[in-house]
Specification:
By secondary structure, the chain is an alpha/beta fold. The chain has one domain: 2-enoyl-CoA Hydratase, Chain A, domain 1 (Alpha-Beta Complex). Helices cover 45% and strands 11% of the residues. Helix 1 packs parallel to helix 3, helix 6 runs antiparallel to helix 13 and helix 11 runs antiparallel to helix 12. The protein starts with 6 loop residues before the first strand and ends in a 20-residue tail after the last helix.
Length: 358
């Protein structure tokens, strides 16, 4: 045990500062961290002295590597409500960030995956650095890209979001900027200086924040998306994972061959569930995506692949999950459709200020 707080929230100058403070766990989110972030953001929303929020992660490796997957696994096994409570409050936090009336600057210089994406990509400003590795890798553990993945992924250009959601592709800073996942780039060597400048700045001028972000910017380098966009858009279109896999298998180029190998390692059930989430999410508002996320996340606890994925990746670490079913053709499409059905009244998604059944 440690006496260190899991997040450090404070006011510095005109900035509300949040530092995720679990560096040994790559700042992975716990339920308590979500609640603490909500409390800080709610207080600062009504505080005229706070003109912007800046969020970073302790240590040099990770902004936030995701949620506490093992606890979710254990909750599902136990049949209690810990996983549901975590997701409900995590999604409430995501929604608060999405709707936040003040600039929200996430310093995503490091591993930013899953839950870490949820507390960054929905904010107004996302600053990538040289250490940025951005991904939604959920299909590799029998899950789906939650935390609003079904909202922001379909809204990226072409089929970039579909490719990311299905394969768990890892993007570095140049690709994040090119895709619009990052709004700015700052070299890792200048990140601390940028944060200090924001803390010392007079942000009463609406342009001051943008001026500073540009001042500390630089050239992130060339994006690989310039070379692969055509292949991505051609391969990942449509509503059938089988068709996507077939097109990739028939393409005949080295990039497509690599994608075929990656897809073959993912949970077939998760691939179909994820594609359905993304296609539905393209036409939904943010809160409706959050409702969808909670329904689908809870349904993942009723299946087998989530537990098998967590066993293979986190518990035994053999990276050899035995998916069931093991083939796309054997996935029950009726069960996929059923994952989107409403939860009971006590477990449906509610937002801050609402009550169950509202």
């Amino acid at each position: 045990m440690t006496d260190e707080p899991e997040i450090i929230a404070r006011k510095v100058g005109q900035v509300g500062r949040i530092t995720l403070n679990r560096p040994r766990a790559l700042n992975a989110l716990t339920h308590g961290m979500c609640l603490d972030m909500i409390a800080a953001l709610e207080a600062w929303r009504a505080d005229d002295a706070v003109r912007a929020v800046v969020v970073d992660g302790a240590g040099e490796k990770g902004f936030c590597a995701g949620g506490d997957i093992l606890q979710l696994h254990n909750s599902g096994k136990a049949g209690d409500d810990r996983a549901w409570l975590f997701w409900r409050d995590e999604y409430r936090l995501n929604t608060l960030i999405h709707d936040y009336p003040k600039p929200y600057v996430a310093m995503i210089d490091g591993i930013t995956m899953g839950g870490g994406v949820g507390i960054s990509v929905h904010g107004s400003h996302r600053v990538a650095g040289d250490r940025t590795v951005f991904a939604m890798p959920e299909t590799g553990i029998g899950f789906h890209p939650d935390v609003g993945g079904a909202y922001f992924l379909p809204r990226l250009a072409g089929e970039i979001g579909t490719w990311m959601g299905l394969t768990g592709a890892r993007l570095k800073a140049p690709d994040c900027v090119a895709a619009g996942l990052a709004t700015h780039y700052c070299p890792s060597s200048r990140t601390e200086a940028l944060i200090a400048a924001l803390e010392q700045a007079d942000l009463a001028d609406e342009d001051a924040l943008e001026v500073l972000l540009e001042e500390f910017s630089g050239d992130p380098g060339d994006s690989e998306l310039a070379h692969t966009r055509g292949l991505i858009d051609a391969a990942f279109a449509g509503d059938s994972v089988e068709d996507i896999a077939a097109r990739i298998g028939q393409a005949g180029d080295s990039w497509s061959a690599k994608q075929a190998k990656v897809l073959a390692t993912k949970s077939p059930t998760s691939l179909k569930l994820t594609l359905a989430c993304l296609r539905k999410g393209a036409d939904l508002g943010f809160r409706d995506v959050m409702r969808q996320d909670l329904r689908v996340s809870c349904r993942c606890l009723e299946g087998r692949d989530f537990y098998e994925g967590v066993r293979a990746v986190i518990i035994d670490k053999d990276n050899a999950p035995a998916w069931s079913p093991a083939r796309l053709a054997d996935v029950d499409d009726t069960a996929i459709a059923g994952a989107f059905a409403p939860l009971d009244d006590d477990h449906e998604m509610t937002f801050l200020g609402e009550t169950a059944g509202a």
